[in-house]
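HUMAN: Spend a minute on the protein record below and explain its fold to me.
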Amino acid sequence: MELWFTEDHTKDVKFSIRVDKQLYTGESKFQKIEVLSTPEFGRVLVLDGFIMLTEKDEYVYHEMMVHVPMAVNPDIKNVLVIGAGDGGTIRELVRYKSIENIDMVEIDEQVVRVCKSYLPFTAGKLGDGRVNIKYEDGLKFVRTKSDEYDLIIVDSTDPFGPGEGLFTKEFYGNCYKALKDNGILVNQHESVYYDSYQDEVKKTHARIKAHFPVCTVYQANIPTYPSGHWLFGFASKGIHPTEELDAERWSKLGIITRYYNTDLHRGSFMLPNNVRRLIFS
């Protein structure tokens, strides 16, 4: 008998992956956690029935979350990461010797424990000496910070369940306050391909734009995310993501990536017309 995992993308669309074995299943205080072994995508992390990452394409998401802001401002030293329990964002950040401190705020300690055990390809750098893991609510944590971070990365789940508070206007206002004058905010921004996602994406952009003078969106192709076309938010107090890209300086760092490069960086901000009209109109 074949075993399949199926995720509902919409009420009319399902995405299925054949599974070799269920490696882990459990319930935390916040959500159901599963790790699956699959022949096509390798190991897969699932939270509350939704794919968070697969071994085959997780690098796209994590590289685009990290290297875009780092190439715009390679002098970033103090970073706040909210969410990111799988460790992939941390793995990419610690590749920068210039970063001195990373505060990682993850509400669900069990996610981190599971990822350390079953997903070493993402979680293998969580023990880096610059990483301080705090198991608490990111919304509450950022309220207490002011003029402290050079970069905030919101590596959250979808805008419901444990991640719901990380999509509010209050949260983005607190992020603005927590950033230094040259600070950058990056967040996962969902997709507009399916109609049922569009209102939330537009609202999220408007909430960020209410606080940040520079506020835009960029894109990547992540095959196992709904539609494969995924968006990220870039906001700052003044730094522009393409005009101030220092491609030569970033290239000299010698960081080897699988997806990101500085040509792609520029191109990722060149959005299709339907996305522009929906988000910016």
Q: What stands out?
A: The radius of gyration is 18 Å. Residues 58-72 form the longest helix (15 residues).
